């Protein structure tokens, strides 16, 4: 299942059209609950135990997103003590530090959870649901899906849904696969429909500061009233803590103080604009390190002192948006009348 380096050819079915215009000069007023000026979505990518490892049937150890990232750290056909240990830090220590931090503020987050990773740490999986955090689908394994055919992807997504439900007690209603291909968002929706499980949102996109609808290609021949569309809640890399470990030379965060300062600056701009959402992507093995967690806590304290800040999970964003802007084929958002 290792598809690193694979470049997929044309795949016309399920491919979305490009949209370079979006909402344009005057985006819709999302009208966040209780008059909030901004929605803050904290997202913990939980991947530890689902990454490349020969013990998982792969031909290599993971070389991506850890403290010494880069292809030169990759080990083929063997285990890698440093890489494995870094991922274990996330599941043994970092995840618990972060869950304690969110308990301190009483805020929810969304877990981009890898199925096999949650399966290997059911105590943490259950604690997330216990504390009111949302479980979302980050795939069955945290490996490159780019060259996988539709059927294989759908089956892996379905297995991930069931595995996450079994491990945590909650079935995901949203997804961010991250290492998929251009067809993956729609295949996630199809997988949920085949299982008969509800589906609210997909986040494999980075193209806006507010949610939007896109048409689902597999629904194009249905009567208008039967089409449900695909609600996209954009994600981002700009605030992603992986920049702490980005290979040099690169656009990484050289220190926790730079990370904290950037988060505050992005918050201030979006807060001033109003009606936007802010993503804060996290990893247990990265932001779960003490100095970085402290920088995150400083940022959390900063926004906790502002009025009109809605800290929420992505499920709540989806439910709010769907209520205010029900799906209308061919439209990004049309406000419900009345």
UniProtKB/TrEMBL annotation:
Domain NodB homology: 81-312
Domain of life: Eukaryota
Gene3D superfamilies per record: Glycoside hydrolase/deacetylase
MF term (GO), any: hydrolase activity, acting on carbon-nitrogen (but not peptide) bonds
One GO term (biological process): carbohydrate metabolic process
Pfam families associated with the record: Polysacc_deac_1 (PF01522)
PANTHER family, per database record: NODB HOMOLOGY DOMAIN-CONTAINING PROTEIN, POLYSACCHARIDE DEACETYLASE-RELATED
Listed name of the protein: NodB homology domain-containing protein
Organism expressing this protein natively: Pichia membranifaciens NRRL Y-2026
């Amino acid at each position: 299942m290792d598809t690193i380096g694979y470049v997929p050819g044309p795949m016309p079915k399920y491919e979305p059209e490009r949209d370079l215009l979006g909402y344009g000069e005057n985006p819709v007023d999302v009208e966040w609950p209780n008059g909030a000026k901004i929605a803050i979505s904290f997202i913990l990518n939980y991947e530890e135990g689902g990454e490349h490892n020969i013990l998982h049937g792969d031909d290599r150890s993971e070389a991506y997103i850890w403290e010494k990232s880069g292809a030169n750290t990759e080990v083929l056909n063997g285990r890698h003590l440093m890489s494995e240990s870094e991922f274990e830090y996330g599941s043994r220590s970092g995840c618990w530090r972060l869950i304690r931090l969110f308990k301190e503020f009483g805020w929810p987050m969304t877990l981009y959870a890898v199925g096999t990773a949650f399966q290997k740490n059911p105590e943490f999986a259950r604690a997330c649901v216990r504390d009111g955090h949302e479980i979302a689908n980050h795939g069955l394994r945290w490996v490159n899906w780019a060259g996988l055919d539709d059927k294989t992807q759908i089956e892996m997504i379905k297995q991930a849904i069931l595995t996450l439900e079994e491990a945590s007690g909650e079935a995901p209603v949203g997804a961010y696969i991250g290492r998929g291909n251009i067809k993956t968002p729609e295949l996630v929706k199809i997988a949920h429909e085949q299982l008969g499980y509800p589906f609210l949102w997909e986040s494999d996109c980075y193209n806006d500061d507010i949610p939007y609808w896109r048409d689902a290609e597999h629904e194009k021949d249905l009567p208008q009233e039967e089409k449900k569309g695909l609600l996209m809640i954009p994600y981002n890399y700009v605030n992603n803590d992986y920049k702490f470990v980005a290979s040099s030379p690169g656009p990484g965060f050289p220190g926790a103080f730079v990370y904290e300062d950037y988060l505050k600056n992005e918050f201030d701009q979006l807060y001033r604009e109003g009606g936007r959402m802010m993503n804060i992507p996290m990893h247990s093995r990265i932001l779960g390190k003490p100095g970085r967690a402290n920088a995150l806590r400083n940022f959390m304290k900063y926004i906790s002192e502002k009025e009109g800040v809605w800290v929420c999970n992505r499920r709540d964003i989806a439910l709010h948006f769907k209520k205010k802007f029900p799906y209308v084929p061919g439209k990004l958002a049309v406000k419900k009348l009345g």
